[in-house]
């Protein structure tokens, strides 16, 4: 899963490459003094830091997906507004211009009165059913929206926790790099001091002598020279 995340997230893959290169350089510089346990610990910390970064990216993507679903649900809710307005609409009154029109209208009312009365009950029942259906749909929507909001809140909390832990690992990694730099500097100082001691004792480097970077041999020869001088 971590490898798949690295392929999908160029930034995470780039961070992985940089950390791998930095760790490789640090391991080479600390080969003479760093123990196997320290090396394994550094690799473990780097791996955990990368996993935390990948987890942060996954949580971000999941949060975006939840926001998108929430917007879609809100759009679906807006589609039911016209139906609600239609149910609230009342029959409009008609103005007549003469008696004949009014009489004809009244005659028509008498004719369709019974039919309207019969249909009124059906319409009322249908409206009640629509109200119940709308209320049920609204309740289900509110419940689902509440669940999504709770999930989103939980993910936000987990994201903040992951960011905090990633920051801690980043600080520890920086401390490891600083320690590696100090060890490298100390190693250089020891190498330089050993070379000076070797040359002061009459040692020769280069062609016909020891290699300039063979610190262990130089130190050994210097000790032998001092021991020989002491015995003389």
Describe this structure in words.
- Pfam families: DUF4200.
- Residues 32-92 form the DUF4200 domain.
- With 232 residues, the chain is mainly α.
- It has six helices and no strands.
- It folds into two domains: 2-19 and 44-200, no CATH class; 201-232.
- The protein has helices spanning 2-8, 10-29, 36-78, 81-88, 99-200, 215-231.
- Helix 2 (10-29) runs parallel beside helix 5.
- The longest helix is centred in the middle third of the chain and has 102 residues, at 99-200.
User: Which sheet architecture does the biggest sheet show?
Assistant: none
- Sequence of secondary-structure elements: HHHHHH
Distance between the termini: 70 Å
* Number of DSSP E strands: 0
Portion in helices: over 70%
How many whole angstroms does the radius of gyration measure?
42 Å
- Total of domains: 2
Low-confidence parts lasting 5 or more residues at pLDDT below 50? 1-8, 83-92
Structural class of the secondary elements? Answer: mainly alpha
How would the global form be characterised? rod-shaped
Average of per-residue pLDDT values: 75
Q: Helix count?
A: 6
